[in-house]
Amino acid sequence: MKNHATANDHEFPEWILGVIRCPNSGTCLSLASAQLLSLVEDRHGRSPMTNKIGRTISAIPTQALVSQDHRWLYPIIDGIPCLLPDEAIPLDFPFEFADPQDR
Questions:
Q1: Which of 19, 24, 32, 103 has the fewest Cβ atoms surrounding its Cβ within 10 A?
Q2: Residue 3, exposed/middle/buried by CB under 10 A (0-12, 13-18, 19+)?
């Protein structure tokens, strides 16, 4: 039986993903896919992205949690999700990145 979800080198107990919520939208959070993080990295390379309060993001995280509505990205730093509302990275990506069951 699998008890953990893996994000790169760090593991997160699955029950935590079922308990924590997006501080900005109140939706569930999940591990951001490599595809989404790659898109964020590409977008940041073309035009620097900012967090919720307008500070430029110095580097796109290699691990992150994403809100169920795919509007907010929360960096995972040293295996710890940063769930401060102001540190969230707003996303404006196409709906195809949303979980199909959420459509």
A1: 103
A2: exposed
pLDDT tens digit string along 58-88?
Answer: 998 999 999 999 999 999 988 889 999 999 9
> Do the beta carbons of residue 36 and residue 65 sit within 8 Å?
no
In this structure, which amino acid lies at residue 42?
A: D
Contact predicate 70/37, CB 8 Å = no
Q: What is the per-residue pLDDT across 30-48, written as a single tens digit (0 to 9) for each?
A: 999 999 999 999 999 999 9
Residue 94: CB atoms within 10 A of its CB come to: 8
Q: Where are the domains of the chain?
A: 4-94
